[in-house]
Fold each of these.
Amino acid sequence: MKPTFELLKRDTTSGARLGKLTTPHGTIDTPVFMPVGTQGTVKGLVPERVKELGAKIILGNTYHLYLRPGHELIRDFGGLHRFMNWDGPILTDSGGFQIYSLATLRKLEEEGATFQSHIDGSTHFIGPEKCIEIQEAIGSDIMMCLDECLPYPATRDYAEKSLGMTTRWAKRCKDARKSDNQALFGISQGGMYGELRERGIAELTTIGFDGYALGGLSVGEPKELMWETVGKSAPLLPEEKPRYLMGVGTPEDIVECVYCGIDMFDCVMPTRNARNGMLFTNGRKIAIRNAHYRDDESPLDSECDCYTCKNYSRAYLRHLFIAREILAIVLNTIHNVRHFIRLMEKIREAIKNDDYENFRRDFKSKNSDVDTD
Amino acid sequence: MKPTFELLKRDTTSGARLGKLTTPHGTIDTPVFMPVGTQGTVKGLVPERVKELGAKIILGNTYHLYLRPGHELIRDFGGLHRFMNWDGPILTDSGGFQIYSLATLRKLEEEGATFQSHIDGSTHFIGPEKCIEIQEAIGSDIMMCLDECLPYPATRDYAEKSLGMTTRWAKRCKDARKSDNQALFGISQGGMYGELRERGIAELTTIGFDGYALGGLSVGEPKELMWETVGKSAPLLPEEKPRYLMGVGTPEDIVECVYCGIDMFDCVMPTRNARNGMLFTNGRKIAIRNAHYRDDESPLDSECDCYTCKNYSRAYLRHLFIAREILAIVLNTIHNVRHFIRLMEKIREAIKNDDYENFRRDFKSKNSDVDTD
């Protein structure tokens, strides 16, 4: 079966939407947050735990999996789901962002991207056709088109040229796909230039994809400019297709961009911050290494229902972190991922109750200072 | 309640024994292997997982917990069980071995040991009374006396002097204890000198403890000499009390020393080797990074019933290890700990069936080459 999307509801006072994304590996309520499982694992968690946290779909990284263990190996194992023991939906990115941010000596030409691996410096080429071949070998439920992730700032001239290539690559991706069971999403680029975003989206929708993503955001631009770009671009995307904001973001970003009509998010923030001891609670982030948690018997977040908050004190979490114990990463990751999943549950509930405008206002007033203590 | 030991059975053709150790936090069938939870966690595993693997008792390290997070803090939390969310039995070592092997600038005198922390170089003093105070604050089910862990080789003269002090420290430990709910074990030292072992054990049993340990073994001496020392010392220990061989060992060591009449073992080997990618299977150790596991679809050990072996391929475990994923440590630790626990299950079964002699012969023939591939 080919993944399908059903738009269930539009919020009465904002762009926020409720939807249902059906894939061969399960159904996903949107708006949804996708934990990142870069190298075939959500770092530190067994798949059963990821599921227990309420995650319905995870993201795999094409660039990483192509380099290691290699997409042919994954294909020989019957795909990533089986290889990593995760039977839920998987979305794979196209590798474009990693080629832009991780690989060295990258060279982007009309044919595709030549780059050196960040692991061993070996030289590789990925064009649109190869990008699809890799993602079909991985067997993800949702594939992304290869794109050039535009840096910020970029001149209008460069942004326009880049957009043209991204659009032509998108067309080639669509032509290259063979699988009927995997959705393919197009990616909007164009930097912060509204007119280019508009043109790119028009061209993408003419080609026609199963869903649409906004890419090239959260790459260093001011937060307000990101929100503004999303606010202008999201309404241009086809209403009956899922809308995915790539690599975003903070809880505040998510609340804001759901408001603009985004359905899908992914970000390394909950997992990466967990490893660094930065833990999300309602209204503030906690640096668990801080000395004033030394003898704090209270749970990390008394409102949280996760395994970590139900069973451990801040003092114990601090001890594990200071002692560099692996369990610190495990317990912190459990909490942070659950925090993001719970946020999405609250968001969906608010939209369902025609209350998203209030929810957003309330959230912003409590999270005006999302700073580290 | 004070922990008690019941000797259930002696093997008909060897020194092997079946027993039951009852503590305030649960009952333990012996011979038993205790996974090491140095800093208030079995590295990488949540306590529910440790329990699922069949571990009935874990070991905590007095030296580490005293330095970090500090025993007063643990006492304020109602003890280590509650602090770390493990409701099963805990044995704490005395810190003697860590002072010997980890701390710097240590100075052992009649009064006790002065040493510098391996963490920050701060100076500390632990004598027998302090050692008991710390373990009572931790609230372990079984405490160990402070001892001097004799290096190998040691002169007879030094070994004799050291033994005298270890015995006097043991007496002071017994005098210092206040808790009625915690067992206290004496530790036999004396190096590889049979006569000194004999004298020390006689003195310890005269003082009288709830159990007896053999210490100062597996500190660099040849394996055969260790087995020989255990073989001569174990029968000297009171039959009605549990016998614990500290810090030992390989599966082969365990099989051999159960044969000599040892009831309890602990070792970092399963957990530490897991982190290094050295995995135990029947008859051989596997270095999971080895290239010939790259596309190996088979489980790590087809005879193993652990979560890792039931759900993952060698190829996936190799991928995680090569990619330095945290999940590699988690999955490897699950398997290695389960491997040791299963070994103890088989050992108890063999003793129960009056078949330990055969079991041992069979094990030795299959494990004659416990080398890394």
Amino acid sequence: MPGLKHTTFAIAGLLFAASLAGMVFTHCDRPTAEVPLTELQQQALTFARPLPPDAFEEGMDRSEALIELGKMLFFEPRLSKSGLISCNTCHNMATFGVDQLPVSVGHGWQKGPRNAPTVLNAALHTSQFWDGREPDVESQALMPILDPLEMAATEEHVLAVLWSMPEYVDHFREAFPEEEEPLLYANVGVAIGAFERTLITPTRFDDYLRGDAGALTEYEKRGLHAFIEAGCHSCHGGPALGGRAFSMFVTPAERASGQKDPGRFDITGNELDRHAFKVPSLLNINETHPYLHDGSLWGLGETVDVVAREMLGSELSPEQNAEILAFLAALTGEIPAHALKLPVLPSSTEQTPRPVFD
Amino acid sequence: MPGLKHTTFAIAGLLFAASLAGMVFTHCDRPTAEVPLTELQQQALTFARPLPPDAFEEGMDRSEALIELGKMLFFEPRLSKSGLISCNTCHNMATFGVDQLPVSVGHGWQKGPRNAPTVLNAALHTSQFWDGREPDVESQALMPILDPLEMAATEEHVLAVLWSMPEYVDHFREAFPEEEEPLLYANVGVAIGAFERTLITPTRFDDYLRGDAGALTEYEKRGLHAFIEAGCHSCHGGPALGGRAFSMFVTPAERASGQKDPGRFDITGNELDRHAFKVPSLLNINETHPYLHDGSLWGLGETVDVVAREMLGSELSPEQNAEILAFLAALTGEIPAHALKLPVLPSSTEQTPRPVFD
């Protein structure tokens, strides 16, 4: 794999896949296939994994009450200082969990520094944010609420908002039945995280990995083959086809301007992490434009060419590019129905803090 | 009704109610009551009317395809110049069709001049906007898209966005099957308007008006009685309890600052319309704070007192105020399920205009 510039490399996928190649997954939701896997299916299983039904880990609370509270908080603009911005503003469920902007716009119409990644399947990533600075969706969810460029709130504001509405107080008690006083800022993250752990978007590629060789068209299979042959799979593996490793990446726009994002270096202080970013997931990639950490590329075809050149040192032929795009298009999944059902939010009271626009 | 300062007065409700008082509505969706109406029910029917199932007028198209297209456009941020602001930004379905802000925030974080009214039941109003400058929801819906303070787009931008996505082109063809080329700016309004005509939120008060005297609690009935006795019903009549007449209204905040909104005068140039505003609907009023055309009052109790003083020259007792609030709380209705189900929006293409933040 010439030109590969990983600073960290997730090999868990390869390890587990080695034990699975040639087998059919047993936890699948369709009858276990009797037919042996094709060679391409076996190849795919060396780096890819069918999506789990959700991203809860062993022992995690996954109650309906917790998930529903998390959804309310996800759609709750009153958590922000202005009362206008919710998680859903930048991670719009109607557009596959993104805002389709190069960088997001927050409090006071300020622009953020990086492109907003989708919340769909994000809980499957091994760390959160482009620079991996948070370990999970629970801790990630708390950050944009407090970021002065985004929702610009304080913990005190958030707690005052939630305490002001008896309905929220009740929801927290139902969602955290074993806690004496569950209305805590950290639990806002726990609830939003639980909601995010349900945002899994299965595709035909999952059926393919589970043994149904006809789940992809012949052209999509040629795309999968081209994807592997080009070496894309060496970074884009696991159930989300990404989200598990960091790679050094300078975008063409950064190269042109000379303004290069330090990336993970700002978190670790390690020179090897300079310009390193989390490898993005490829699920729903057709819908989550614009691309790259600076949102500087709008076309997926161009993006595939740029990434192949930068990461693999390869020039793709137009045919390879088109085939890979066909495979990527097959990765657009179903957004879970409950995530598309807007909650009706509790009524403000006289105690609810008033919006502040600055 | 001393102190009444109407510039225009909708009497249609009174005329039709005269013919109905003492009768039970025959187009109701529950078995026609056999029991005679109570005196209070008869009084209520002199000014109020049960909500119709929708706000379509005779001969209007109400196809599923048209309504669904309208919903997509209502939630579509790419209609705006920034790609960030949709109708739902200020008329958030999760918060009863309002943004719960004194005035809305639009393109470039600019503030609008007036409080955003709810879209729920708005199609029942006899005109649109606080100053009534548009006749219906179809023409209203087109205005914020082009307003430089709101979505800041142009007709050309909107059409370029819609033409760039084949899925939208198909949806327009399905929604307007008899038009040769239906993808026109005016039809954006027709579709959003059709969606808005479905946004009717029935309450227990409708059941009460249809003959079920037990649909309101005794205290709510005392509230209804206090509401009528104070004279509130003289302006707040019809199925939406408002939205049918204009009244001169200067808010306490305007009086204090001396900055009085000219209101409908700016539309008609008629001195009698100076500071005149459309009487707001009282449906879901508990949820659509802050109140008045400048969004300057947060408490509904205070608002009821102010309006009684300004419009009726009355000082309400604390008991009257509390009773009226109990009646108003009974006017919170059900948001239709389809309006809470987010559409999954079509994918942008290379031709889709890029967001511009200015």
